[in-house]
Amino acid sequence: MLRQLHRLVRGSGLSFACAVLAMPSLALAQASAPPPPAVQESAITRIERAVTEALHRGLDRIDQALDATLPYDMPEVLPNGDILIRRSKPAPVSPQPAPDPAAPPAQKSDPTKI
User: What whole-number distance in Å separates Cα of residue 62 and Cα of residue 44?
Assistant: First the structure.
């Protein structure tokens, strides 16, 4: 059976046609080969580093927001076993200078004029 099929393919020139049709698939297989492991590892480590940096930035922002809203310091355990939670001192607010009444008012620019 196989010999008959082989003769048919050989005699009719189908082998050349099959070879020509198989070439694009071989080229595609070679072109889409996975990159070497070192390149994959470096890409994975770059992604991992970017994700961890983003998480650190997000956690820092949450920490700053909590520090701004919670008016208490870290709890302390006293020698007798009591837990002391101190109220933190608010950050000093710098007073804004009062406008000088003798100075002329600043002119407001019209955003529609050039």
Answer: 27
Residue 104 counted as domain residue: no
For 40, residues 6+ apart whose C-beta sits below 8 A from its C-beta are 34
Structural domain for 75, as ranges: 36-85
Residues near 14 by beta carbon (within 8 Å), at least 6 away in sequence: 8
What pLDDT is attached to residue 1?
A: 46
Does a structural domain hold residue 95?
no
**Domains in the chain: how many in total?**
1
Tell whether 60 is covered by a domain. yes
What digits encode the pLDDT tens for the residues 81-114?
Answer: 999 999 887 666 677 766 666 766 666 666 676 6
Residue-level pLDDT at 18:
55
Full DSSP string of 18-37: HHHHHHHHHHHHHHTPPPPH
Domain-located, residue 106 = no
What is the pTM (predicted TM-score) of this model?
Answer: 0.35
In total, the chain counts a number of residues equal to: 114
